[in-house]
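Hi W.,

Here's what went into the run:
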Amino acid sequence: MKKHDRFATIVDKVIQFREARDWKKFHDPKNLSEAICVESAELLERFLWKTREEAEGLSEAELSGVAEEIADVMIFLICMCDALGIDLLDAGEAKLQLNEAKYPEDRARGTAKKYTELE
Ligand SMILES: [Mg+2]
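Here's what came out:
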């Protein structure tokens, strides 16, 4: 199965999961924004107090926990896009194009400067 097909399938599964539980009524853009922030914080919590070396050398169990939080963020992003009629992949492609314009390779390569500070 192609990745694009897999993404369409997971979107369908997320929507079906939500519909089967009658949760759409909770999924307004405000609540979903909050849920995305909460799940992002849970992802961050997986790294709390770890050194850079520890964060880059996670155990299988730790990596599994991180994957769960990433999935939670993805699921709520899918719900958010559904609530607002946004195509997540189109939004991602459009943002990448914007970022390519803001961060030209010849000026942004190897630096962490914000685009407003690039020379
Ligand atoms: Mg979570």
